[in-house]
Design brief:
Elements: H1 21-30, E1 37-51, E2 54-61, E3 70-73, E4 77-84, E5 93-95, E6 119-125, E7 130-135, E8 148-153, E9 163-172, H2 180-190, E10 223-224, E11 229-230, E12 238-241, E13 251-254, E14 260-266, E15 273-277, E16 282-287, E17 290-297, E18 300-302, E19 307-312, E20 318-325, E21 330-338, E22 381-390, E23 395-398, E24 409-411, E25 416-423, E26 429-433, E27 438-440, E28 448-449, E29 451-454, E30 459-465, E31 471-476, H3 479-483, E32 487-492
Parallel strand pairs: 1-4, 3-8, 9-14, 13-21, 22-25, 24-32
Antiparallel strand pairs: 1-2, 4-6, 5-7, 7-8, 9-12, 10-11, 14-19, 15-18, 15-20, 16-17, 16-19, 20-21, 22-23, 25-30, 26-29, 26-31, 27-28, 27-30, 31-32
Length: about 500
């Protein structure tokens, strides 16, 4: 709870904590008569994972990566009993969901961490349909295999597709010469070194050949015009789709003449992906779980924590669905094959389809459907937030303060809240808000999201309705930036 206190010595305002009765009241309002309860037992534990020709040791849910997708219907109650068989504490954060605050999975803010050998049961109403996912909110655990999809189906799903497939993208280094902790140590130690001549690369594994080094101005070797400059901090040796590397591609079978709904999730820690289906356009229908007016595109960039649902109608044959690690000169792909194509037919694994350089989706093209638009009511309160940091020294913050020293951003129940972000660093940041969705931009038709990519030098405003009491994290979804404290707390005043 240090995140909710000010280092100035002044008394802090009284805020609504995770045990407040108003949180239970808000949960009661989400209840739907006649809804079901979906129960799952989940184990977080060390495991072996086959990545093509190699086997690595990592951590995962139920010994698979990604963990089994949980599917339920909007309005149902999700009950997940987690047993922690890891050698350290953990939690689960239910990414993108407007759920009850005491189930949000942020240790020491919404719940105590779950000790090694202990169990905890998460129980909440899944009110909003869409594509979501879950992962720990402890240290660097996300940069292992601890993540899984969560799909909440519409109670009256309009359909219009024959296949419903989840594709989870991930950047991978665990067990390939390094661990996330070793990588983080390498990043943070560079700023304290007067020269690089004595650096021992052997212990930095997934960082590659000086891949994370930047000058004092904060420059990384990874560059992307689409992301406005620096593209990331870490050179990952592998990239995965549904736990499979490029040497062992995941395959989606679509009935001849049929349509597929692809739910794309970026579970990576430091990599944005440029996604395209060779020989085809994609029709974007949802972003971060919420519907948008359909828009066609050749390619899109998905930042860490973002989700896009797209519809594709593949022509007869086998086609490469490629995720290119933006600015990092690496790809991973899946195969989309129609049922009338030979099972031996597959696109070349090195294929980089022309669509990757075609029409790119922009946020400005995304318009929320009428049913989910946030009205044009002006904000009652606005918080202005500066994103700051550099590669050398390796430090990332909001308003020049890490979460331990950043005062809470106060809101009151019922307010329309505006958050205005300015990126004063040389790197892009995927900004994520817990417990709410916001309207991106000032236009009343702007998409409803919970994560968006803020490029260097940009100023972007988002609006949300303060209708979910408690204390909620606001942070950069780059795992290494968050570990450095690039976060603050949205706190409801009592």
């Amino acid at each position: 709870m240090a995140a909710c206190s000010s280092s100035s010595g002044k008394s802090s305002p009284v805020t609504i904590g995770a045990d407040d009765s108003r949180i239970a009241d808000a949960e009661q309002a989400r209840q739907v008569a006649g809804s079901a309860t979906a129960r799952h037992a989940l184990v977080a534990a060390p495991m072996s994972l086959e990545l093509g020709p190699r086997t690595v040791q990592t951590w995962g849910y139920d010994s698979i990566v990604p963990g089994t997708a949980l599917r339920l219907t909007e309005g149902d109650t999700l009950e997940v009993a987690l047993r922690n068989d890891l050698p350290e504490e953990t939690t689960i954060h239910w990414h993108g969901l407007a759920l009850r605050n005491d189930m949000d999975g942020v240790h020491d803010l919404t719940q105590p961490a779950i000790a090694a050998g202990d169990s905890f049961t998460y129980r909440f109403v899944a009110a909003d349909p869409g594509t979501y996912w879950f992962h720990p909110h402890m240290g660097l655990q996300l940069d292992r295999g601890l993540y899984a999809p969560l799909v909440i189906m519409e109670r009256n799903d309009p359909g219009g597709y024959d296949v419903d497939e989840v594709l989870v993208l991930d950047d991978w280094l665990d067990g390939i010469g390094t661990t996330p902790e070793q990588t983080f140590e390498g990043l943070t130690s560079m700023g304290s070194m007067g020269s690089m001549g004595g650096m021992d690369h052997g212990g930095m594994g997934g960082m590659g050949d000086m891949s994370s080094m930047g000058g004092s101005g904060g420059m990384s070797m990874f560059q992307s015009a689409a992301l406005g400059g620096d593209a990331g901090d870490v050179a990952y040796p592998l990239h995965l789709i549904n736990g499979r590397p490029q040497s062992d591609r995941f395959t989606i079978i679509v009935p001849s003449g049929g349509r597929a709904r692809l739910r794309i999730i970026n579970a990576g820690s430091d990599t944005a992906y440029r996604v395209a289906l060779g020989g085809h356009t994609m029709t974007v229908t949802h972003t971060d779980g919420f519907p948008v007016e359909p828009v066609e595109t050749d390619t899109l960039i998905i930042g860490m924590g973002e989700r896009y649902d797209v519809l594709v109608t593949p022509r007869s044959g086998a086609w490469p669905l490629v995720a290119s690690a933006e600015g990092k000169d690496a790809i991973v792909s899946a195969v989309v094959r129609t049922s009338d194509a030979s099972q031996t037919t597959a696109p070349n694994a090195s294929t980089r389809p022309a669509e990757l350089e075609g029409r790119m989706l922009s946020y400005a093209q995304l318009r929320a459907t009428d049913a989910v638009r946030l009205d044009g009511r002006p904000p009652d309160v606005e918080h202005r937030i500066s994103l700051q940091g550099s590669m050398m020294p390796y430090q990332w913050s909001l308003d020049g303060a890490t979460i331990a020293d950043h005062p809470p951003l106060l809101v009151e129940h019922g307010q329309r809240v505006r958050l205005t972000f300015t990126n004063d660093s040389a790197m892009w940041h995927p900004v994520h808000l817990h417990g709410h969705t916001f309207r991106l931009g000032a236009d009343a038709t702007g998409p409803r999201k919970d994560t968006f990519n803020l490029l260097p030098g940009q100023t972007v405003s988002v609006d949300f309705e303060a209708d979910n009491p408690g204390q909620w994290m606001l942070h950069c979804h780059n795992t290494y930036h968050l570990e450095q404290g690039m976060a603050a707390v949205i706190a409801y005043k009592d």
